[in-house]
Amino acid sequence: MARIIGGVGCSHIPSVGAAMDNGKTQEPYWKPLFDGYEPAREWMRKANPDVVIVVYNDHAAAFDISLTPMFTIGAAPEFLPADEGYGRRKVPNVRGYPELASHLIESLVFDEFDINTALEMDVDHGLTVPLSVMYGQPREWPCRVIPLAVNVVKYPQPLGRRCYKLGKAIRKAVDEFDEDLTVAIFGTGGMSHQLQGERAGLVNPDFDKAFLDDLSGDVARLTNIGHVEYMREAGSEGIELIMWLVMRGALDDKVHEVYRHYHVPASNTGAGLIILENDQ
Amino acid sequence: MGKLESEYEDIPGTYVFDGKRCIEGFQLNKFCKSLDLEANRAAFRDDPSGYLDKFPMTPEQRKAIEDRDWLGMLQLGGNVYYTFKLAAFDGITMQHIGGAMSGITVDDFRQMMLAGGRSVEGNRSKSEWK
Known about the structure:
The complex is a heterodimer.
Chain A: E1 3-10, H1 14-21, H2 31-35, H3 38-47, E2 51-56, E3 71-74, E4 78-79, E5 94-95, H4 98-110, E6 116-118, H5 125-135, E7 144-150, H6 160-176, E8 182-188, H7 205-217, H8 219-223, H9 227-234, H10 242-249, E9 255-266, E10 269-278
Parallel strand pairs in A: 1-8, 2-7, 2-8, 3-6
Antiparallel strand pairs in A: 1-10, 3-7, 4-5, 9-10
Helix pairs in contact in A: 1-5, 4-6, 6-10
Chain B: H1 5-8, H2 19-24, H3 26-34, H4 38-46, H5 48-52, H6 59-66, H7 70-75, H8 80-90, H9 94-102, H10 106-114
């Protein structure tokens, strides 16, 4: 049977990918951030999951304003890095897992989550940057990937509580999948940041650190954070943190923190990384 | 009015991309999105006015685009992930438009980020900005 071996929360800042692609990770601006990624990569090498479910959002790359799907699972055998204005990011293509994706979609729909299916979907920095953060720069990604795109761009985004429940339903579906597989789940985006308006540049380290603490300490507090609190306290784009709750929901009720790293600034953002494992 | 509108409209310097703005900004954002394709970027470069004619937006929206009024675009329904495509077309960064939207230079914006970013203190409610 398939089983979830751990969860990762990870910011997906485009300039972090660009720093890697352009060989800048040892520059003074970037070094403290990337130094903190090394222990996470070590964990990833040891864990070596067969499949990673990446919960991320599309930033007007694969989707556009004419249609806003709330939850979408990619069920194609392959996904190409999106062209976000600078050509396709020069990272390996992402190998999918159509059988597991189809199983997830069916199981989730039967659990009352009406998921969209994508068979052609370029994946933007939201998905590829966390892979880069956790795996570095391999010639091929060492895992297959299930992309799970969440609308966080157009208000109203799904509730954090809903995302957490979706994670629980994903866990159930993975547990029931009849292949011997190890699966990790990434919740990506955040942490606090605001890209827009006169308040652009807002970062709230206190909010971010409390969020990291309560992923293992008090999930109920996190699932009760509403849209306005996210936007006010963590910036209008900080609401991406709801995607970390999908990851958290897919783990056991009791988890322990294996590693965390937090750094300000990475571009306009409070950059966070956390690794969680089930207690048993 | 939306259920939470009065609450999020109280957050200063923030333009929540809700249904109202999404509908208002549809053509503006569609124009920005079109710049994903090199052929469209070339067409816009060659004939900005003719290219903008393809998108039936309001005169104010069109002027905001022509003036590269990054804040004005948001106020007229633009979304930053879309308007950033125009910034990328111009060869400028998110920090550049962050500075432009908040009324400081890009260097000052970078310095602010290096110093830990804009604090939430004093920036939670419009009442604090009066």
